[in-house]
Design brief:
Elements: H1 7-22, H2 37-45, H3 49-54
Helix pairs in contact: 1-2
Length: about 60
């Protein structure tokens, strides 16, 4: 797996993931907030399978 997520994209994914994950504990308290684990996981492994399929890269080499 070659990294395909840039710094800005990574920060956005972490923030979005944490916001979605917070829905499990506050607000409507729905399990849909667990979807936030996906952007968090992709941010921490620095690889997005969807970007790979679409031929995208935000790494900015």
């Amino acid at each position: 797996m070659e990294a395909n997520i840039g710094k800005t994209d990574r920060i956005i994914r972490i923030v979005a993931g944490l916001l979605l994950l917070s829905l499990v504990f506050v607000g409507p308290q729905t399990l849909w907030g667990l979807v936030g684990l996906i952007p968090l996981a992709t941010a921490f492994i620095n690889f997005c399978p969807a970007y790979k399929l679409l031929g995208m890269d935000t790494l900015g080499k």
